[in-house]
Amino acid sequence: MSVLSGKKIILGISGGIAAYKTASFVRLLIKAGAQVQVIMSPASCDFITPLTLATLSKRPVYTQFEKDFGEWTNHVELGLWADLMIMAPATANTLAKMANGLCDNLLLATYLSAKCPVFFAPAMDLDMFAHPSTTENTRKLKSYGNIEIESAYGELASGLIGQGRMAEPEDILQTITDFFNNQSTLDLKGKKVVITAGPTYEPIDPVRFIGNHSTGKMGFDIANEAAKRGAEVVLITGPTYLKSINSSVKVVSVSTANQMYKQCHELFSSAHIVIGAAAVADYRPKVVADQKIKKNDEEFTIVLEKNPDILASLGEIKAHQFLVGFALETENEIEYAKNKLKKKNLDLIVLNSLNDTGAGFGKPTNKVTFIDNDFNVFPQELKSKEAVAKDIIDQIVKSYAK
Ligand code: PMT
């Protein structure tokens, strides 16, 4: 049985072409057993008819105050009735009104009255999406606790290609299913989790750097998992192309090990759990050239100096914090990982070995071994990085509870 069975869901539709997708979304919700109340902005009725949605949702569809209710207060009741409200599509106009408390139709009045979690799935043309006012309105909405279901990149109704396509009904369904599933496992609620991810880039000159193959995926997946389980998450990431991150995660972008060190120390006193998944460069060029270095001699030497060890420095000042490190090894894996656990004063270390096929950098999978601070060793299977992230959080929760 789906977790959506019996859930009361308000689907708020505003006036954009993506409104046509709501027919299949309503069908998916009804098939999952949800009770669906559709509320449409007047403009959305030009894109899909209330009759279609009433037929699919098996309920009358509301569009206006007096016409549908005969009185004006029922938006308050609707707002109290729902377990979840979702605005899909959320046009630039509706987003702006939601962000600023405007209330010139029944849909917006219900949104302002809603006591339940509110999701919104933006849908608009790429330039409208990229406009600073839309970005600001989205930020504002998220700061009020609303949850964005990110729009996709692709061909838009205008024929242009860019970001702004409403997420597909199946993906929206998955997001809210995950939400309800996770409501029962919010075991990190009230905890602040700081996670590092990605490589660091140590500059040689304005165009070159010393880096490594980390993509950031392992750290991003851990951040997503911790956020799903109710934590307040800050992700400090080195350079990466990854974008997909739970909208509640605060992302701090850095480049060098020194910058990552500074951010970690700024956040450490308020953190409950710190997880170091970043591949931090141990050394950096001692001198960074102001201009691009020209090729002259047959050989060229770069003198390196040591970077601070971020986790070790946190281990030294650790009070209540639970400190988790990774170990990326190529030989004597267990022994080296145990040494790092002890030397850096960690509570748990996650070992991944480049000798294991499918483990380590860049890949969508990882194979890890947990070692706790009693030196108990728990080898795990090869899994997707998302599944490994879940195992890591499970292990932390178990150890943290002790
Ligand atoms: O990003 P992906 O492509 O998904 O790849 C994931 C990963 C392989 C990078 C990740 O799973 C991983 O193993 N990260 C740690 C890599 C690493 O630098 O390991 P290490 O054994 O050199 O460092 C041990 C620990 O100390 C790590 O937690 C590291 O973040 C930390 N460290 C290292 C050096 C340093 N100067 N400061 C640190 O805090």
From TrEMBL:
This is Coenzyme A biosynthesis bifunctional protein CoaBC. The keyword RNA-binding does not apply. Residues 7-179 form the Flavoprotein domain. Its cofactor is FMN; Mg(2+). Keywords: Decarboxylase, Flavoprotein, FMN, Ligase, Lyase, Magnesium, Metal-binding, Multifunctional enzyme. Residues 193-402 are annotated as: Phosphopantothenate--cysteine ligase. Residues 1-192 are annotated as: Phosphopantothenoylcysteine decarboxylase. Catalyzes two steps in the biosynthesis of coenzyme A. In the first step cysteine is conjugated to 4'-phosphopantothenate to form 4-phosphopantothenoylcysteine, in the latter compound is decarboxylated to form 4'-phosphopantotheine. Catalyzes two sequential steps in the biosynthesis of coenzyme A. In the first step cysteine is conjugated to 4'-phosphopantothenate to form 4-phosphopantothenoylcysteine. In the second step the latter compound is decarboxylated to form 4'-phosphopantotheine. It comes from Paenimyroides viscosum. The keyword Flavoprotein applies. Binds 1 FMN per subunit. Residues 188-398 form the DNA/pantothenate metabolism flavoprotein C-terminal domain. CTP binds at D282, K292, P308, D309, I310, L311, F326, K340, K344. GO terms for cellular component: phosphopantothenoylcysteine decarboxylase complex. InterPro entries: CoaB-like_sf, CoaBC, DNA/pantothenate-metab_flavo_C, Flavin_trans-like, Flavoprotein. Its EC number is 4.1.1.36, 6.3.2.5. Pathway: Cofactor biosynthesis; coenzyme A biosynthesis; CoA from (R)-pantothenate: step 3/5; Cofactor biosynthesis; coenzyme A biosynthesis; CoA from (R)-pantothenate: step 2/5. It catalyses: (R)-4'-phosphopantothenate + L-cysteine + CTP = N-[(R)-4-phosphopantothenoyl]-L-cysteine + CMP + diphosphate + H(+); N-[(R)-4-phosphopantothenoyl]-L-cysteine + H(+) = (R)-4'-phosphopantetheine + CO2. PANTHER family: HOMO-OLIGOMERIC FLAVIN CONTAINING CYS DECARBOXYLASE FAMILY, PHOSPHOPANTOTHENOYLCYSTEINE DECARBOXYLASE. GO terms for biological process: coenzyme A biosynthetic process; pantothenate catabolic process. The gene is coaBC. In the C-terminal section; belongs to the PPC synthetase family. In the N-terminal section; belongs to the HFCD (homo-oligomeric flavin containing Cys decarboxylase) superfamily. GO terms for molecular function: FMN binding; metal ion binding; phosphopantothenate--cysteine ligase activity; phosphopantothenoylcysteine decarboxylase activity.
